[in-house]
Amino acid sequence: MAQSYEIDEKKSLTSKVVTLRIARFNPEKDSDTKFMEFIVNVEKWTTVLEAILDVKQHFDHSVAVRYSCRQATCGSCGMVINGKPRLACFTKVSELQSEVVTVEPMHNFPIIRDLTVRFDRLFNTHHKVKPYLIRDDSEITSNTKEFLQSPEELEQFIQFSNCIKCGLCNSACPTMATDSSFVGPQALAQAYRYVADSRDKGKDTRLKIIDESHGIWRCHFAGSCSQVCPKGVDPAMGIQLLRGYMLGFRS
Ligand code: SF4
User: Fold this and answer.
1) What residue's CA is closest to ligand 1, atom 4?
2) What's the 140 CA to ligand 1 centre distance in angstroms?
3) CB 22 within 8 A of CB 36
4) What is the reported pLDDT for 3?
5) Which protein residue's CA is at the shortest distance from atom 3 of ligand 1?
6) pTM for the whole thing?
7) Regions in the chain scoring below 70 on pLDDT
8) Domain CATH number, residue 87
9) Does a structural domain hold residue 251?
10) Of the residues 93, 117, 141, which one is the last residue of a structural domain?
């Protein structure tokens, strides 16, 4: 049975009351997750992150949550909110249209504590696809050459540059849940971002990296990655376009 606490502060004429259910789990001493419930007052503009920080400030400072920019830029505050991976700083309680808001750690990531998860796997897979322009060293160090690009060439990959490495797409991915070695939609989308960049010379290297048993062919095209991205990146489309390169339909 969940514990329930009420914060009797910050009430105003326009505020509403919701129940915030926070998953609590410490892998060093808990055998399973427990939910603590807090009755909080929210305004139309209150974000889920602000509601959680209210709980930390007024009742239980031990709730573990990671955040930084509070403006959907740093990608730190990803969590599962009412069953869907979202950024807590970018999700208003009012838009959930529910009197109960449940927050849990992102799926498919090891839990550090409560709402915080380890990002090692995401950063490793991101690094694995070589997320940078590959050119001959001499071209880069000569400082005599500009790598110009037309608007049409930029258009090929620009949306994929918006990735903030929040991990929401990996959290939503059903293949990530069943294959602990799958490279994942975030890294595949970044592989596409550089493969499609006309200034890059590393296409063959990257396509080889993702053409392995836990690579691109593991994607079953559920499309859930693209549904949750807060930055408008479409990893599912990037994966399909990458397959086009691999099958020789694109060059
Ligand atoms: S593709 Fe979107 S959801 Fe995935 S890590 Fe990047 S910004 Fe986050």
Assistant:
1) 169
2) 29
3) yes
4) 58
5) 229
6) 0.92
7) 1-11
8) 3.10.20.30
9) no
10) 117
